[in-house]
Amino acid sequence: MSAPLVSLDHVTHAYSGEPVLDAVSLQVARGEFLGVVGPSGSGKSTLLRVLAGALAPLAGTVSRSGTSRIGYVPQVETVNWDFPVTVAEVVTMSRTTGRWLPWSSKSERAEVTKVLDRLGIGGLSGRHIRELSGGQQQRVFIARALLRQASLLLLDEPTSGVDVRTRHDVLHLLDDLHAGGLAIVLTTHDLNGIAAHLPRLVCLNKQVIADGAPHEVITPDVLERTYGARMEVISHAGMPVVFEGGAHHEDVAADLASRS
Amino acid sequence: MSTWLEPFAFEFFRNGLIVATIAGALCGLIGVYVVLRGMSYIGHGLSHSIFGGAVASSVMGINVLAGAAVWGFASALLINGVTRRRAIGGDAAIGVITTAAFAVGVALISVRRSFSRDFDALLFGNVLGVERADIVVVALVAVGAAAVVFFGYRQLLFTTFDPEVAETSGLSTARVDALFSLVLAMSIIATMRILGVTLIAATLVLPPVVARMLTNSFSRMLVLSTSIGALCGFLGMYASFQLDIASGASIVLTGAVLFVLVFSVTGAQARRRLGHAHL
Fold first, then answer.
1. How far is A251 from chain B (nearest CA, A)?
2. Residues in a beta bridge with A235
3. Contacts across the A-B interface (CB distance below 8 Å)
4. Does residue B147 sit at the A interface (CB-CB below 8 Å)?
5. Whole-number Å distance between alpha carbons of A34 and B67
6. What sign results for the dihedral spanned by CA atoms B106, B108, B110, B113?
7. Cβ–Cβ below 8 Å for A49 and B164
8. How large is the average pLDDT for residues B56-61?
9. What is the rounded distance in angstroms from the CA atom of residue A73 to the CA atom of residue A114?
10. Count of Cβ atoms closer than 10 Å to residue B87 Cβ
11. What is the ipTM metric for this complex?
């Protein structure tokens, strides 16, 4: 088995003395597709930032494979959409080494066109980022990561604040990129729409509560330990489906049956 | 000679015009980053802090330019450091550091009980006494700033637009921020005799704001803002002579008139463009 791209060993981090990650150990292998779920404040974004190298842990070790190159896609809510920047400018700004001139070389322009075409947003390079739909905006930031020839893509809540169709589009795109050999780690709050569809899932609440395939970790016990609230889980077409308090198990089952 | 061309017969006017145009272009260029990094208040505060350094240097018998440079850069780094710690807000940090430094200058002037023309020029701007050496200083700083922006274009853009991701991509945002603070401090020091510390923030802010209304592209905004800054410097200096008003005020008022004009013409169009953004 090849060495993991990134490996965390008993990583601990805190903000103003308040622990956010407590002895977290995690390995991300080449070509893996991993989701991280947990309540707000559970340390998901901090975990991504530690994986990305933007944050040094207070304790524990982070090791990265010498060949790993990480692309980080921030939450869309954190992006300044009024910033005067076009799609092409966003994608090329990450190329900070190897060229001293501000404008792109001919080969760089060809690379940008290729990446944008691959992500289905070719022809938009001159558009301002605010003029794009939610799915296109997400693709621009994925394109920026891909132009860095990332071997590991980290996405912080890639589908938050987008409609169902955009969520599907983004998921399919990530699935295609994963099929092409890219390792992906994403955080999400969406247990049914995203987490249940991923090959590997980590439930996090400052500590790793569970780590495994969705059908192994999406259980009432694990969810209660992760979220501090009891949830019910049923199986539908081989996949776990979670529903919170308020809905009755039978109602959800009937709803799923009517949809299938 | 025509009344319009009459001022060009005077060497002091020609010097003033050259230096005001270069200073305007310099402030327009640096101002893009000042505005987009949300540092407008830093520009304002830093100029006041540098004034304190200039006065202190004069009282201590040190070269005013060198003293102001050290003081300005130290203040910029201090503001950066305090802001990064996030224990107190950036605006509060700027308020404390720069007003204290300004107060030192005012206190020293009051102890000396003299208020020389030099300090008057630092406060309100005066290009009448501009000499060739001043032009050289402003031109050198402008060339240095342009070189930093040119060769560090992507690094500056990345750390301005998305500092967190820039950091994950291996860029040291702290180093880029420190370099930019140095360029900003040097730009303020070089131009404060022309524009005046009380008005310099406006020359950093007006050109990029006008440029922003005209384009959605960062590279075009840089070019436009630099050109608008140079135009305001040129027209403002000319108006200063013709109307016999302080050069700093004249340059700022020219920028303000341009802002109103561009806002009137493109404001509704720009709002419509942004309004269609989420179709």
1. 36
2. A240
3. 87
4. no
5. 56
6. negative
7. yes
8. 80
9. 19
10. 10
11. 0.81
